[in-house]
Amino acid sequence: MSDNAIDVDPGTVYLVGSGPGDPDLLTVKATRLLEAADVVLHDKLPGPEIIDMLPEDRREDVGKRAGGERTPQSEINERLVELAREGNAVVRLKGGDSFVFGRGGEEAEYLAAHDVPFEVVPAVTSAIAAPAVAGIPVTHRDHASSVSFVTGHEDPTKEESAVDWDALAATGGTIVVLMGVGRLPDYTEALLEAGMAPETPVALVERGTWPGQQVATGTLETIVDARDEAGISPPAITVIGDVAGTRESIVDFLQTDYGTVEDEA
User: Fold this and answer.
1) Which residue positions does the secretion signal occupy (predicted)?
2) What is the pLDDT of residues 88-112, one digit of tens each?
3) Active-site residue set
4) Quick one: 98 and 211 in the same domain?
5) 23 is in which domain, residue-wise?
6) Phi, psi at residue 204, to the nearest 5°?
């Protein structure tokens, strides 16, 4: 354990965001809690380097993969309560920030409903960090003074999408889509039908800050082909708007520790 050890409370759950995936981007508090916790329930999205930091005898994989194995959220909720009631200090570790499309809010409600104390530990959300390390600011004085964060993977039980693509197309700001690589053709078409210009710049950042990071760029009209040429797959962030075009002017000088600098498509 480090000299900066932290006191944890038995029977408490810590809802911790791991940031975008680079261990160096973990917050100091998150690192201390990971060292001190009795057990860590983690997703896949914290990234392999962070997961490998956790002792095997103190970690439980409750991750989900699109189209693959998954631990139902109801089981995760029940496990958190069970472990806390046994007197453990429990870290629930999620990729990015647990309160940004991370279902941390649902877990907090479940813990509160079952009289389990918890603490929320914020983190750098991948919605901002992944574009940033690829050289894309989500806001820019010359290009975008607003940004909208959208999930590309909604609750499948919903009868219709809660995302108003027509309204988003009319805002004139940046649109950042999380977990939306598979549905890229659907929402790019929706934005085109809503009147967004076909030449609007778009960028895809796969595994932002992970060792295998790669970037594909194009326009609203060409980005699906660019995705396919580059072989972009989840987890990835989609950035739609003029800010995505600023990468072109800086990429030759952009230094990175995270895989490719040059676009793969």
Assistant:
1) none
2) 999 999 999 999 999 999 999 999 9
3) 43, 64, 179
4) no
5) 13-124
6) -115, 130
